[in-house]
Design brief:
The chain contains no helices and 50 strands. It is mainly β.
């Protein structure tokens, strides 16, 4: 068989078979799990490592059982999952393969002795035993990969196994079931992984199982090179028929049988019509065929139409039955699967296939299409009024625009109303437009409106609402307002009069006057404000109060924005330092002819000397009292100095009378007085 038609074949045998011609040795190391590193003594871990090189590729840990176990839970044949002898050797593995909605899975993985060769066929086999009292499942297979799979949880590995057990439920708790299959390698696969690779939702569980867990024992894993599978001749026949049931018997033995319903017997008895297929396998060789079976005793009820049929004038009704069936007989004695009806009457047909008889009857009636009708002229409807429309219910089927189906209809609101009267032979439709004329709802917009002095407010009303009346007596749809005041508009129709009013207020553009630039004395403050304005205030620091308290020099500005515009005014505020008191120094004397200059030494001030001069210095040439007054806008200070003029000639001073005793002496020291002046 060409490789393009067969990539993977799976089969099951309860006895030893070969799959084609074996051409190599088993590539699975420690295939029967008898080479161990230690005897099992605990659940799961380190179970897989006890039979190297087998390991667990997920967090799930299969259990290892061996005759050498000192813990009876892991002995052979008796252990904690049941009682089972090995197929060969001393041990076997067990693993959870279904978790009853938890997707709990365990797997075994081992490296092959050598990688698989591309396009080469391999036979894969292993044995399964269901531990008591667990559940039989229909999924378990072998997956070959280039690298060792890994999953750090207990969930299913998301791979498609090349070999899968397709023999129905793996539910043998007594003997070992052989799963065997063939596949063509891609090349380079060097790991084999065993387990259930499907989720719980994708896995079928044997009914009546109470534990909800599938725990399978594994033995004797083999992978050997083989020849390409061959097709086994299989012929079920093209078709067959029977009255009650039919036994499909391929007439062969020595193969594994798998019918499309999952059964595995050599024959299949069916009691329903359909196509049935069978797959047989002998190791890896296989054969497939199908047969179409017709069960005559299960004739479907014959149907030539509803019990009553309405036939319009000039129309016909054609009945077409299955031409594959025979022995039709109509009420007029004619035969055949087709029948055309053109007139009213009772019509029937009977079918007898030799096993059963079915029949059907219909009544055909003639019907004329509905006559044209009129809903009336379009009209207005005031609030509280109603329009009632009535028709004869025998005219046909009624459907209004709102899908109601009554022959009477009450209209209480405006809108477009339509009615269709129909029967099997045709339909007629009409519509009417009802305009609701409630008292007009007049809306001029906001009750209070603001306008700037240069603006014009334009009010507009919909003339379709009725007759318009403005305050000045005009009746057009548009009215212009140029002055403040209260304006009322009216709209009237046949149902009443509605009105609305608007109060219009003028608003001026803000006018700000913070005053001229100013100089303050140290410690002074200034409160800035702009009374009489409304709107959004914003100062230079983005504050929004209506006043600002100035305590330091700087440029201050206020912006005010209202409905009609925005205005800004700045003011520069500077601070004058306090006045410094003048210091003319201590009183002093001058020699004749001397002169001295007095300095104010007070910056940023006005000067006033005793002679009313205003220079920042004063030249003194004569004795006298000199006064300086300094001042600015923040205060004034003053100082006074007295200057005298003296003669500076030397004077010799000796005592007028000195008395001495005999022998005494005195030294006379002339004292010369002289005034020395030092002026700065």
């Amino acid at each position: 068989m060409p490789a393009t038609l067969l990539k993977s074949i799976t089969c099951i045998l309860i006895f030893s078979v070969t799959c084609g011609l074996l051409t190599g040795q088993n590539l699975v190391p420690n295939y029967s799990f008898d080479t161990i590193s230690a005897c099992p003594f605990i659940y799961g871990f380190p179970g897989p490592t006890l039979a190297p090189p087998w390991v667990a590729p997920t967090d799930g840990t299969p259990d290892y059982f061996n005759v050498c176990a000192t813990n009876p839970q892991f002995g052979v044949p008796a252990n904690y999952v049941g009682y089972q002898y090995p197929l060969a050797g001393d041990g076997y593995f067990g693993m959870i393969s279904y978790g009853s909605g938890t997707n709990l899975r365990e797997y075994l993985t081992a490296p092959l002795f050598q990688p698989l060769v591309a396009d080469t066929w391999y036979e894969v086999s292993f044995y399964i035993n269901l531990a008591n009292p667990h559940c039989g499942i229909n999924k378990f297979g072998a997956y070959f990969s280039y690298i060792q799979p890994y999953l750090n949880n207990f969930h299913p590995l998301n791979f498609d196994p090349q070999v899968e057990a397709n023999q129905g439920f793996l539910n043998d708790t007594v003997g070992w079931e052989l799963v065997i299959g063939c596949f063509q390698a891609q090349g380079g696969e060097q790991y084999i992984t065993l387990g259930n690779f499907y989720t719980d939702a994708e896995t079928q569980v044997e009914s009546g199982c109470g534990t909800g867990i599938a725990y399978l024992l594994i033995e004797n894993v083999t992978v050997v090179e083989t020849t390409e599978p061959e097709i086994i001749p299989l012929d079920l026949g093209g078709s067959a028929s029977a009255c009650i049931s039919y036994l499909i018997d391929p007439g062969i033995s020595g193969y594994t049988f798998l019918w499309e319903d999952g059964s595995t017997g050599p024959t299949l008895e069916v009691d329903a019509s359909g196509t049935y297929s069978l797959t047989i396998t002998d190791g890896c060789d296989y054969g497939i065929d199908s047969i179409e079976v017709t069960i005559l005793s299960t004739l479907d009820p014959i149907d030539i139409g509803p019990p009553q049929i309405i036939l319009c004038d000039g129309d016909s009704y054609t009945i077409t039955l299955d031409p594959a069936l025979s022995d039709y007989e109509w009420q007029d004695g004619t035969n055949g699967p087709d029948y055309i009806i053109t007139a009213a009457g009772i019509y029937s047909v009977t079918l007898n296939d030799g096993c059963s008889e079915v029949s059907d009857v219909i009544e055909v009636m003639a019907l004329a299409p509905p006559a044209p009708f009129d809903l009336g002229d379009n009209q207005n409807l005031c609030q509280g009024d109603e329009l009632n429309i009535l028709f004869d219910p025998l005219l046909g089927d009624f459907i209004w625009q709102d899908n109601s189906t009554t022959s009477t209809y009450t209209i209480s609101t405006g809108g477009t109303y339509s009615l269709t009267i129909s029967n099997m032979c045709g339909m007629e439709t009409d519509e009417i437009i009802i305009t609701s004329l409630d008292i007009p709802d007049v809306s001029l917009g906001l009750d209070n409106q603001i306008m700037c002095a240069w603006e014009i407010i334009e009010l507009e009303l919909d003339p379709s609402l009725g007759d318009i009346l403005w305050p000045d007596g005009s009746n057009g749809p548009i009215f212009q307002i140029t002055q403040p005041g209260i304006y009322i508009a009216y709209i009237s129709n046949e149902c009443g009069t509605g009105s609305d009013q608007v109060n219009v207020t003028f608003v001026e553009v803000p006018v700000i006057e913070l005053g001229p630039d100013t100089i303050l004395c140290t410690g002074d403050t200034l409160l800035l404000s702009s009374p009489g304005n409304t709107g959004v205030f914003q100062w230079q620091d983005n504050s929004q109060n209506d006043t600002f308290f100035v305590t330091s020099p700087g440029l201050y500005a206020l912006s005010i924005t209202n409905f009609c515009g925005s205005e800004t005014d700045p003011i520069l505020v500077d601070y004058m330092p306090g006045i410094i008191a003048p210091d003319l120094g201590p009183d002093l004397s001058l020699c004749p002819g001397e002169q001295i200059t007095l300095f104010a030494n007070t910056p940023f001030a006005n000067y006033l000397w005793q002679d009313l001069s205003s220079a920042d210095s004063f030249l003194v040439t004569t004795a006298g009292t000199y006064t300086l007054q300094v001042s600015n806008s923040c205060g004034q200070e003053a100082d006074t100095i007295v200057i005298s003029v003296h003669d500076n000639s030397p004077q010799v001073i000796l005592p007028d009378l000195i008395s001495l005793c005999q022998g005494d002496s005195v030294t006379l020291d002339a004292q010369i007085r002289k005034r020395e002046l030092s002026l700065e």
